[in-house]
Amino acid sequence: MGEFDLIERYFKRPARQAVLGVGDDCALLQPAPGTQLAISCDMLVEGRHFLSTVDPLRLGHKALAVNLSDLAACGAKPLAFTLALALPRAEESWAAPFAQGLFALADAHGCELIGGDTTRGPLNICITVFGEVPVLAGRSQALLRSGAQAGDELYVSGNLGDARLALEVFRGTLSVPAPVFEAARLRMEMPTPRVALGLALRGIATAAIDVSDGLLGDLGHILKQSGIGATVNADICATLVAARAGCAPEPGQPGAEIGPDQWRSLALAGGDDYELLFTAPASQREAVAAAARNSQTPVTRIGQIDQQLGLRLINGKGQTLPNNYTSFDHFV
Ligand code: ADP
Ligand code: MG
Hints:
The chain is an alpha+beta fold. The protein has two domains: 3-140, CATH 3.30.1330.10; 153-321, Phosphoribosyl-aminoimidazole Synthetase, Chain A, domain 2 (Alpha-Beta Complex), CATH 3.90.650. It has helices at residues 3-11, 56-74, 92-108, 162-171, 178-189, 195-200, 215-226, 234-238, 260-269, 285-294; strands at residues 35-45, 77-87, 112-120, 124-136, 139-140, 153-157, 207-211, 229-233, 275-280, 299-306, 310-314, 320-321. The longest helix is centred in the first third of the chain and has 19 residues, at 56-74. The radius of gyration is 20 Å and the shape is globular. The structure holds adenosine-5'-diphosphate and magnesium ion. Residues 7, 11, 22-25, 83, 85, 113, 115-118 line the site of adenosine-5'-diphosphate.
C-alpha cells in the first residue's frame, strides 16, 4: 500500500462542515460570524508519549484526545483537525484500528479531519485542532491562563494520578490489583477530553488549563501568567486518584505499599491526566456546580488563589506540607 492509497483508504472522508477537506493543497474552513479560531497542536512520539505495544485504536483516540483537551481548556468548540503522520510502514493492521479510534472520538465531538501529511519515518503523530470561540461585545470568550484573581477558588475536574500509576506499574515500580491496573491503564491510553465542561465554563471560570504535565506544574503556569499565588489541599487531590479505592491497605497485598505521600505525589505531579484545572470567583460556586452537572463532569474544589505569590500546599488538617513534587519536563 502506497502513501496515497493509505490516505484514500483510511483518512479521506467527505467534508461535512468544512468548505473543503482532504484532497487539495489546502483545506478551507469558514468560522461562523462573530467567532475566533482557537488553534492548538500536540505531537505524540513513540517511546516518549506512548509505549510501542499500545493498541493502535487507543493511540488514535489519544492522539486526538490530547488536542481536544487543549480546546476544552480554552472553552473552544471543536471544528476540525489535521493529521501529520510519520509511519515506519503502511500497514492495514495498524492504520485500520488507528483510524477507527481516531474517528470514533472525532465523530463524538463533531470534529472533522480536513488534511494532513504522511511520510515514512519513526512513528510520530502530530495533530493540529481548530476550534471556535465566540466574541461577545468585542470580548473573546476564550478561557485563558492569565485571568485568575486573588480570592478565586481553584477546581479540578475528574480524577488525577491514575495515568501515572499505570505508567509506574508498566515500569515495575508499583504493583496494584489487576482490575485496578486495567482501569488506570484505560485512563492513560484513552483519556477523556473535558470539552463539554470547558464550554460550560465560559463566562464563569476566570482562568483554565488542561493538566498534562502534572497538576502543580500546570497550576504554576496559571500562577505565573496571572501574577498571583495559590494554596492547594494536597489531601483532597490525593482522594481523586480513582485507583486508590481499589488498593488494599493490608501488607503483602498489591497496592498496599503505596503510602499517603505517594498518593499525593501521583495526584499532584502524575501527568497525562487531561483534566481541566480552573479558577472561578467564590460568588460563582453555584454556577460552577451547574456547569459540572450540565456537562456530566465531576468537579472538585481543591484550593484557592492568593494575593501572595508562590504555591502553598496544605494537608487535610490545614497544616503546611513541603512542596517537593516535581512535574514533567522533556528536557530536565
Ligand atoms: P501536498 O504534497 O500538496 O502537501 P499531499 O500529497 O501531502 O499534498 O497530500 C494530499 C492530500 O491528502 C492533502 O489534501 C493532504 O491534506 C491530505 N493528507 C495527507 N496526509 C494525510 C493524513 N494523514 N490525514 C489526512 N489527510 C492527509
Ligand atoms: Mg504533503
